[in-house]
Amino acid sequence: MVTLKPAPADYGIKFKRVDLPDEPTIDAKIEFVKQVERATTLGEGNVKVLTVEHVLSALHGMGVDNAVVELNGNEPPICDGSAAPFVELIRKCGLEEQTALRKVFEIREPLHVETKSGSILTLVPSSSFRISCTQVGPDGRFTQYFSTEITPEIYEKELAPARTFVFYEDVQPLMDKGLIRGGSLENAVVVRGDSVMSKEPLRFSDEFVRHKIVDILGDLILAGCRIAGHVIAVKPGHGPNSELTRAISKRYAQMVAMVPPRVIPQGSAVMDTKDIQAVLPHRYPFLMVDRILSFEGDKKIVGMKSVTINEPYFQGHFPGHPVMPGVLQVEAMAQVASVLMSKTNPGANGIGYFMSADEVKFRKPVVPGDTLIIEAELLRTKGTIGKASCRCLVNGEVTSEGILLFAFILQ
Predict the structure, then answer these.
(1) Considering the domain boundaries, does residue 51 fall inside one?
(2) Residues 362, 404: one domain?
(3) Can you give the pTM of this predicted structure?
(4) More confident: 395 or 154
């Protein structure tokens, strides 16, 4: 028996074994995955919960972030082999919006998993959550493709009813391993040769690939966050799904464990926008530094640029996937370096003209909401000619860098 109970914000999803002394719980997180053959098993110490993917998929697909899944055994009931019974249970429980913000990981750089068995899973940027899946059976049998955005409405109607399936030649080895002991034609579709064996007709002409997406959703929620991205899967399985989930979890952990926000110092070393405009002639929309955070003598400087969706260049670079142009990051470096050069000519206005940009590299995309930290260090000066090593960072990670040579021309 399974019972779903509400949980407070930021609680996550936990399985509780009410049949055991002290009623131990296991977090639905990738680090507790113990087995991924034909099903996903969670475990901590001697406590295990088997075949968690369908109930987790239903919670994921229906938008549930916090819940307690109580079990009076080591496995949720298989029911009809689909996630639909759990969706029905969620509907009976009802959904309640909570005050805390949902944890959503917006994918900015592709993640890729490829296995020796031929499974390929790639996660690419997208403004919404979407899964495109190709199911390939033995010898290419029942190859199916389905692509859909994931919303509660679509999940309930188009995905949850799809049942688990197995190829007949795989049944005996699985039973020899002690797996699918409770399997029957009532809770799984069996494929023998080119024939389909089940108690009822297929619910969809492409039911197999839809169930693969159900499984993907059940495994991906173990990352501990929701995703804004497009999963492209070819021949997925619980093993490859878990590898992608582990990669997502690692990338997400790196993001949330970002370096503490830089403390903006107070005092004479700080320049606000008004002070910067007194030194540089640049104005909207081409002033690429909002604040100077610090000077280190006459050799080093740190500036800051808050990147917002209101930047005019985001209208065309790119629609639906806004990215700050690399050339504007280079311009930001030059402007900050020009402010540093102006220190050697106090009270004088001037313009930093590019002479060359060498060893320029772009490491990571910069998107709306990022705070761009711009660092410049003068390597050499001769009169009004300066050479500076510059770089831009977001959350402590370098997004671009280069060696700039420019002339500071006094006005």
Answers:
(1) yes
(2) yes
(3) 0.65
(4) 154
